[in-house]
## 1
Amino acid sequence: MNRATSVVILIVLAGLGMGTTYLVHHTSAPRIAAEQRLIDSRNLLDLLPPGSYDNQPLEQPLSLPSTRLANSTLLGGYLATKAGQPSAVLLRSQTLGYAGSIDVLIAIDVNGKLLGVKTLKQSETPGLGGKLADWPNTWLQVFTGKSLSEPGDNGWALKKDQGQFDQIAGATITSRAVINTLHDALRYFDEHRQPLTGSNPP
């Protein structure tokens, strides 16, 4: 076998190898992307009670414009359903904490009660306000089951502000910002319940 033939064979083999690699990547990319979406969905939606929905909420975004509320900005939302009926609304909100913006995902059931809260992004002080990113989060779990009327407008504040909630130790500004954001979200839900869920207050 002369040198020219060897070079041609090497080029053909390299081309076949590259073609096979491209084909494998091209055919597996959609499956990998779908699996990643499922993982992302589970990570975001683990604040919803198991069995409370049977759709893919992140694939059912609500038509919500970015809206400035009293203490936060509503960035968007999603609808969770079960057997075709609304079961929860997820609102993504942003507020300003001590060190920067804080993004949270807030789950509210159709009766206006908080199902859960999860921090999506924050840059608070590690060991203080940064504890907000922990999951599960003991401080955030305190708000589960609360609503606009329970504890009422005056109750939606820190105890040091004559409200009903403790703060994250050493993180007054962070705690106050999150409480105000949750209160904003509950007010927004109460005022827009029908367009959000397609149902009226019980």
Note: The two ends are 86 Å apart (CA to CA).
## 2
Amino acid sequence: MVRIVMKFGGAAFASTEHIQNVVKKAIAEKEKGFEVVVVTSTMRSVAEEIAKMVRNLSDNASKRELDALFSTSAQLASSLVALALQEEGYNAVSLTGWQAGIQTDALYGHARIDEIDVSRLEEHFAQGQIVIVAGEQGIDNLRNITTLGKGGAETAAIAIAAKLKAERVDIYTNVDGVYTADPSHVAGAQKLKEISYDEMLELSNLGSQIMHPRAVELAKKFQIPVIIRASERDTVGTLLKEEVEMEKNLMVRGVAYESDVIRLTVGYDAYSNASLADMFTKLAENHINVDIIVQAIIDGLKPTVSFTILKEEFAEALRVLEDSKLSLGFSFADFEIGLAKVSIIGSGMASNPGVAARMFDRLRRENIPVKMVSTSEIKVSVVVPQDDMIRAANALHDEFNLFQEMLL
């Protein structure tokens, strides 16, 4: 029998009415003849209450105990969905992550999936049951409960689908699909019928909150079709797959942006003192993500390397650099705040030269200064003043004609 996996975000469990809506969607797929797995996310209100209690009890809570605590939120959601399905007369069972066979490494709070044993899921399918799995969690080789961190539920949903050889994964969110830009801030943003894994991965890495990059990477690896759709409305959604039909051969298919970017600049007295490998290895060891990197080596000037990080990692990055100043051999470090990253994305850019030139020209005409640039085959990112972020996104959306209704 054909299987599908349905993943619902935390907002889908905000009330009993929301949970009944989840149940209706699961029943609809079951009635179509599918074997159904529902993956639940954390119930936000429950997670917030747990966090509050932890703060009142401990200033240095054990990561192991935190994972055990926070895993209960998604478990509550899965059990409530199972109860509601049973009330509607359907055979349903809820499973924790470890009961569903999700095996992870031991990195508490940010665990990665090593393997999934779907034998128990198969047993429940044989009994005609709808299976509801608590997402964002698993178990390590010492049988300790772990949580998967950001994007954990959708990553688990895609991993389960891969092992079950499911037909697709439906990701239910608070938006009804993937748009050419954020419709709340960019005029004329249009919903895409389809988007490629590579394009979605770039969008996710460049500020889109619709789907986490690790989930997109897994979907691409196992070639799992994914439909991103609204949890509270019946809409067509956006299909995520390997290759898409290029509507009117559009070179650019999306604009993304990310605020609160900080530029760090590290300078050296001499080029011989500079080791990019040592610096970025040290930052990586401290789990600091570096994005755009620009090195400047000019005769008569001290060599520098500049890179961008997110605001929440700024203090830790400064601490790491200061603690390692002697071993890394740099003479000074400076920073600039109040920046943002704006990007254009499209798989058609690889075969169409001149896209970056159009982007830079439009920003020039808008009097928006470009402070840093990063490119790949399917994206161009620029760092601009944060006050100009939304204006830049709208200008680029207009420049590449992404307002066209034919995308719908």
Note: The first helix runs from residue 16 to 31.
